[in-house]
Amino acid sequence: VSQQLKEEIRRGFAGLEDPLAALLAMLENSSDWKGKGHSLGYYITTELQLWIKEHPAVPQSGIQLKELQARVLRILSQCPANLLDPLISIYQLHTADRNYLLEHVSHLYLKGDYKEAAVLSIKLKLQPDQDVEKMCIPLLLQDKANVVEDYVGEYPELQSKLLQILDSWCEPGVNIRDVTRPYQGLSRYKPEKFNHRTLSKLVFRLLDRFHVDPALCPNVVNQRHLRTLNYLFYKRFVEKTMTEENWADHVQSTAGERRCLQGHLVQLLLRHCDRPAAARWARHWGLPADLLPPGLAEELPQLHTQERVEEATKAGNYEDSKKKDYYQLPIPRENIHFLQTWEETLQCWEKVLQPGQVVGIDMEWKPSFGMVGKPRVALLQMAVKDEVFLLDLPRLLEQEEVEEEKEKLPRFIQMLYSDAAITKLGYGMSGDLSSLAATCSALKDTEKQQHGVVDLLTVDKQVDGLSPEHSHKERGVRQQQKGLSLLVHHVLGKPLDKTEQLSNWEKRPLREEQILYAASDAYCLLEIYERLCKDPESFGLSSDLMESLVGKRSIKPRAKKQLNKQEALSPSGQQCQGSQMETPHAPAPVSPREFSVVCDNMLQGLGRYLRCLGVDVRMLDNEDDHRKAAEIARQEGRVILTSGLPYQTLQSQVGEGRCFSVNCSEKAKEQALQVLKHFNVQVSLSDIFSRCQ
């Protein structure tokens, strides 16, 4: 809004005997403020709100204010959201008679304006005096769960009450139609959105958002456990992608001590598998005879023995087929290191935190099967050439708590992710980093600060067909694998064995199969990256791998036409040629205080950014000739930072490597990262703003 309009509005207020009544008269006789966006009525209202704060004697009181409050309540239900707070403030509705406000909201409710009644109740904080079930059911039937969440948002007792009501509708034998029948004439009624499954999702969302104990909702939790058992059953006996050990772990933790769930599992086994498996679990849980099908209790001893023999036979055949059909780690077992102490992790950091290093990163956590809360990382895998490090994250964080040194591990992880000179490979890294932040709050900003990251999930969407050596027939058939396993199949020829994916990764010690699976998941990223670097066009990728591989948050590439001796084909500064991932000779690391530059006049933003990082910067003025940069560079021993045509002129006037061409189309931050990486400038926290007042 122009300053002139604001001044005109304020002059108008000053000339009015009763600005509050005048504003109401304007709103009552105009309709421009009812639409979305910022209308003239909105600007006048918000300016009056500010003007009143500067002139505290203006507000009315007594009978006259009550009359104004009654009038403003009549128009509030038609107000756009951006006008509610200013009008409530101007007319002091929080001081109005509470019974009168409740009566007005009740009138809106009876008219069928359920959302408007709820929103006004939220604004006036009337919820403690209302019936939460009565206010929320119509909103849920109209698919306005977000309004319901806001309605109970500030009141823990209402949250608990609402959750108990929703859970009671999920009790076995309750017909959801009996709940909805009184509201069948509701406008915008969406009965398909109101069923046990959507209710269950809503309950879990509310439990998570408001940090309420799930024990408050036994019916919904029990239903979720039943669905989990069905899912586990499908993975083990239909899809056959889960080992007996993993399946048993999850079944045990899901069923727990709940007799109904234990009985449900035994019934599933009897119906779809065999009696020996059912017998084993019935014996394990000590299920009473009345929960077992007729005849099963008497057969238990004999069936249990038979089942154990069959499992042993299956296990013997499994290992041979696994080696033949799936990707195998190309490194010896002794090169996989399981790290549980800070001293052990030092060998990992020494290898990983090297400029030019390429690191495959993956994470594992115990499957939550839809229960409350984000998963917490139980294992962090880091693979470098010929070695894999498996970090026992819970143990390491627990050790830091005991030793009262909570910063060490997070600091190293942040150093790794923020170092543009180290290429980090992952698959779906955003989800991994979200779980990492849930595991350790000190890492919550890691995703925002990451550089030099290549997310192979992006590549997965671009890779065309299978690897070149596959037959025509194989190339025409998509395998059953998905995600990373399918990408490994396409690029390396065999899929990953995912039978350990849904392991209980929090259980210690890890089984040997889990260790090999975790190491493979990280190491295969290195092999995929190397193969794609070597022959990108065979997979339908651009020959400019920077364009194909680098994720949104990675360092942006310079345009091809600007590449010269300074170029690097990968985000880490590594050239991917031949089968080896070779590291070119990098300059010795320097601190920003030892690094002096002169910025050409088209790079003043870059100069300011580098100065914030502690670099000694001089900048040409707009009217200066480009050649002045060469004079300053020679006299003061500075590196020239320039762009475009001046680069050709200036590089010939200084020593080799003392002039650097920056991509002028990029933002200052990306340009700065390019410069720091090329000259191996290592920025520490103490350097930041060290040259600023």
Automatic annotation (TrEMBL):
What's a Pfam family this protein contains?
A: DNA_pol_A_exo1
User: What sequence ranges are listed for the domain 3'-5' exonuclease?
Assistant: 336-537
Any one of the GO BP annotations = nucleobase-containing compound metabolic process
Q: Return the Polar residues bias intervals.
A: 565-582
Please give the CDD domains that the UniProt record associates with this protein.
mut-7_like_exo
Cite the PANTHER family for this sequence: 3'-5' EXONUCLEASE DOMAIN-CONTAINING PROTEIN, EXONUCLEASE MUT-7 HOMOLOG
Q: Which organism is it from?
A: Piprites chloris
Spell out the protein name for this chain: MUT7 Exonuclease
| Highest taxon, organism lineage | Eukaryota
